[in-house]
Specification:
CBS-domain; globular
């Protein structure tokens, strides 16, 4: 059985809630990623949200806020979603589809070990699986 660990990309990087969005953008550039799990300040292993490059643009820059003054924690909202490393691909797809999310942190023994993104799905799934995923995640209803 193919698992979340098999299809994820490794090297997911945390950003502490107190770090500013300009630092988050720098980390995204350095690690070639578009999302960072946000950790509770002082608690590297407790995820309070996920920050995306899109969040920085739409929820900070586009509304006239200064990314050097807004923190990752300021944009953390909702319930963070994650998947266990041993979960099967069907569980990964269900979690992403039911929550309409495009990135999913992978956790093993309560530690962040990777992230699953659209690109990872495209590399590991059949065309039919990808088409169904796109339909469910991007549906406008």
């Amino acid at each position: 059985m193919t698992t979340a660990k098999d299809i994820m990309h490794t090297g997911a990087q945390w950003i502490p809630a107190h770090e500013t969005l300009d630092r988050a953008a720098q980390l995204m550039r350095e690690h070639h990623v578009g999302a960072l799990p946000i950790s509770a300040s002082g608690e590297q292993d407790r995820m309070i949200g996920i920050l995306t490059d899109r969040d920085i643009v739409l929820d900070c820059v586009a509304v006239g806020h200064d990314p050097s003054k807004v923190t990752a924690g300021d944009l953390a909202h909702g319930t963070p979603r994650w998947i266990d490393a041993d979960a099967g691909v069907d569980q990964v797809l269900e979690e992403m589809q039911s929550n309409r999310i495009r990135r999913l942190p992978v956790v093993e023994n309560k530690k962040l070990i990777g992230m699953i993104s659209e690109a990872d799905l495209a590399q590991h799934l059949s065309e039919d699986q990808i088409a169904l995923w796109v339909e469910k995640v991007y549906a406008t209803s």
